[in-house]
Design goal:
Number of domains: 1
Radius of gyration: 18 Å
Helix content: over 70%
CATH class: Mainly Alpha
Strand order of the largest sheet: 1-2
Oligomer: single chain
CATH topology: Ferritin
Strand content: under 5%
Length: about 170
Protein backbone atom coordinates (compact mmCIF):
# COMPACT_ATOMS: atom_id res chain seq x y z
CA UNK A 1 0.00 0.00 0.00
CA UNK A 2 1.35 3.44 -0.90
CA UNK A 3 1.92 5.73 2.04
CA UNK A 4 -0.84 8.28 2.54
CA UNK A 5 -0.23 11.95 2.13
CA UNK A 6 0.94 13.38 5.47
CA UNK A 7 -1.83 15.99 5.44
CA UNK A 8 -4.45 13.23 5.11
CA UNK A 9 -3.05 11.44 8.14
CA UNK A 10 -2.88 14.69 10.12
CA UNK A 11 -6.47 15.55 9.19
CA UNK A 12 -7.82 12.17 10.34
CA UNK A 13 -5.78 12.29 13.56
CA UNK A 14 -6.98 15.86 14.25
CA UNK A 15 -10.63 14.97 13.68
CA UNK A 16 -10.35 11.89 15.90
CA UNK A 17 -8.73 14.02 18.62
CA UNK A 18 -11.65 16.46 18.31
CA UNK A 19 -14.17 13.61 18.65
CA UNK A 20 -12.49 12.63 21.92
CA UNK A 21 -12.45 16.28 23.05
CA UNK A 22 -16.16 16.61 22.30
CA UNK A 23 -16.89 13.48 24.34
CA UNK A 24 -14.83 14.90 27.22
CA UNK A 25 -16.78 18.17 27.07
CA UNK A 26 -20.05 16.25 27.09
CA UNK A 27 -19.07 14.20 30.13
CA UNK A 28 -17.81 17.30 31.95
CA UNK A 29 -21.17 18.91 31.25
CA UNK A 30 -22.95 15.81 32.56
CA UNK A 31 -20.79 15.84 35.72
CA UNK A 32 -21.99 19.38 36.41
CA UNK A 33 -25.59 18.64 35.36
CA UNK A 34 -25.86 15.63 37.67
CA UNK A 35 -23.73 16.99 40.55
CA UNK A 36 -26.58 16.39 43.02
CA UNK A 37 -25.77 12.67 42.71
CA UNK A 38 -22.12 12.39 43.85
CA UNK A 39 -21.57 8.85 42.55
CA UNK A 40 -22.90 9.69 39.10
CA UNK A 41 -21.03 13.01 39.01
CA UNK A 42 -17.83 11.13 39.89
CA UNK A 43 -18.47 8.61 37.08
CA UNK A 44 -18.96 11.42 34.56
CA UNK A 45 -15.84 13.25 35.78
CA UNK A 46 -13.75 10.05 35.61
CA UNK A 47 -15.03 9.30 32.11
CA UNK A 48 -14.28 12.87 31.02
CA UNK A 49 -10.74 12.55 32.37
CA UNK A 50 -10.26 9.33 30.41
CA UNK A 51 -11.44 11.07 27.25
CA UNK A 52 -8.97 13.89 27.97
CA UNK A 53 -6.30 11.18 28.12
CA UNK A 54 -7.36 10.05 24.65
CA UNK A 55 -7.06 13.66 23.46
CA UNK A 56 -3.50 13.75 24.81
CA UNK A 57 -2.69 10.51 22.97
CA UNK A 58 -3.86 12.00 19.69
CA UNK A 59 -1.91 15.19 20.37
CA UNK A 60 1.22 13.11 20.94
CA UNK A 61 0.58 11.19 17.73
CA UNK A 62 0.12 14.47 15.85
CA UNK A 63 3.40 15.86 17.21
CA UNK A 64 5.30 12.63 16.49
CA UNK A 65 3.36 11.56 13.41
CA UNK A 66 6.41 11.15 11.21
CA UNK A 67 8.05 8.73 13.63
CA UNK A 68 4.91 6.98 14.92
CA UNK A 69 2.13 6.71 12.37
CA UNK A 70 2.57 5.18 8.94
CA UNK A 71 -1.04 5.40 7.79
CA UNK A 72 -4.62 5.65 9.03
CA UNK A 73 -7.54 3.36 8.25
CA UNK A 74 -10.36 5.89 8.42
CA UNK A 75 -11.54 8.27 5.73
CA UNK A 76 -11.36 11.93 6.75
CA UNK A 77 -14.84 12.56 5.34
CA UNK A 78 -16.39 9.82 7.46
CA UNK A 79 -14.58 11.01 10.58
CA UNK A 80 -15.70 14.61 10.12
CA UNK A 81 -19.34 13.47 9.76
CA UNK A 82 -19.09 11.73 13.16
CA UNK A 83 -17.37 14.76 14.69
CA UNK A 84 -20.03 17.17 13.40
CA UNK A 85 -22.82 14.90 14.68
CA UNK A 86 -21.21 14.73 18.14
CA UNK A 87 -20.80 18.52 18.22
CA UNK A 88 -24.47 18.99 17.28
CA UNK A 89 -25.45 16.52 20.00
CA UNK A 90 -23.39 18.38 22.60
CA UNK A 91 -25.06 21.66 21.58
CA UNK A 92 -28.48 20.01 21.80
CA UNK A 93 -28.02 18.62 25.31
CA UNK A 94 -26.66 21.95 26.53
CA UNK A 95 -29.89 23.57 25.30
CA UNK A 96 -32.20 20.70 26.30
CA UNK A 97 -30.66 18.91 29.31
CA UNK A 98 -31.39 15.18 29.28
CA UNK A 99 -32.56 12.98 32.11
CA UNK A 100 -29.93 10.78 33.69
CA UNK A 101 -31.31 7.77 31.84
CA UNK A 102 -31.10 9.62 28.51
CA UNK A 103 -27.57 10.81 29.29
CA UNK A 104 -26.40 7.29 30.10
CA UNK A 105 -28.06 5.79 27.00
CA UNK A 106 -26.54 8.40 24.71
CA UNK A 107 -23.10 8.05 26.31
CA UNK A 108 -23.17 4.27 25.92
CA UNK A 109 -24.11 4.61 22.25
CA UNK A 110 -21.39 7.21 21.68
CA UNK A 111 -18.76 5.10 23.43
CA UNK A 112 -19.64 2.09 21.29
CA UNK A 113 -19.26 4.21 18.17
CA UNK A 114 -16.16 6.12 19.23
CA UNK A 115 -14.23 2.90 19.88
CA UNK A 116 -13.72 2.76 16.11
CA UNK A 117 -11.89 6.09 16.31
CA UNK A 118 -9.40 5.38 19.10
CA UNK A 119 -5.82 5.76 18.01
CA UNK A 120 -4.93 2.09 18.13
CA UNK A 121 -8.00 1.33 15.97
CA UNK A 122 -7.36 3.87 13.23
CA UNK A 123 -3.58 3.96 12.82
CA UNK A 124 -0.89 1.66 11.51
CA UNK A 125 2.18 2.35 13.59
CA UNK A 126 5.65 2.31 12.13
CA UNK A 127 6.91 0.14 14.98
CA UNK A 128 5.18 -2.54 17.03
CA UNK A 129 6.59 -1.02 20.22
CA UNK A 130 4.70 2.23 19.50
CA UNK A 131 1.47 0.32 18.99
CA UNK A 132 2.02 -1.48 22.29
CA UNK A 133 2.54 1.78 24.17
CA UNK A 134 -0.72 3.23 22.86
CA UNK A 135 -2.52 -0.07 23.46
CA UNK A 136 -1.36 -0.04 27.09
CA UNK A 137 -2.58 3.53 27.55
CA UNK A 138 -5.99 2.59 26.15
CA UNK A 139 -6.20 -0.56 28.28
CA UNK A 140 -5.63 1.49 31.42
CA UNK A 141 -8.94 3.29 30.99
CA UNK A 142 -10.88 0.84 28.83
CA UNK A 143 -13.49 0.17 31.50
CA UNK A 144 -15.51 3.36 31.20
CA UNK A 145 -18.05 1.85 28.78
CA UNK A 146 -18.65 -0.95 31.27
CA UNK A 147 -18.97 1.60 34.10
CA UNK A 148 -21.59 3.55 32.14
CA UNK A 149 -23.49 0.34 31.37
CA UNK A 150 -23.40 -0.66 35.04
CA UNK A 151 -24.72 2.76 36.09
CA UNK A 152 -27.55 2.36 33.59
CA UNK A 153 -28.34 -1.16 34.90
CA UNK A 154 -28.48 0.20 38.45
CA UNK A 155 -30.83 2.94 37.29
CA UNK A 156 -33.05 0.52 35.38
CA UNK A 157 -32.95 -2.86 37.16
CA UNK A 158 -34.63 -5.80 35.48
CA UNK A 159 -38.01 -6.90 36.86
CA UNK A 160 -37.82 -10.03 39.03
CA UNK A 161 -39.42 -12.23 36.34
CA UNK A 162 -36.71 -11.27 33.80
CA UNK A 163 -33.66 -11.86 35.99
CA UNK A 164 -33.67 -15.63 35.37
CA UNK A 165 -33.86 -15.08 31.60
CA UNK A 166 -30.59 -13.12 31.63
CA UNK A 167 -28.64 -15.52 33.86
Amino acid sequence: MAEQDASQVMTVLSHCRDIERTCAELYEYYAELFKQNPDIAKLWAKTAAEERSHVAQFEMALRLREALVETVFQDAGKVVVVLERFIRFLDKVRNEPPTLEEALCSAIAMEEEVADYHLESIAKFRQESSRQVFHAMMAADHDHLEALEEAYRQLRPLPEDQIDMVA
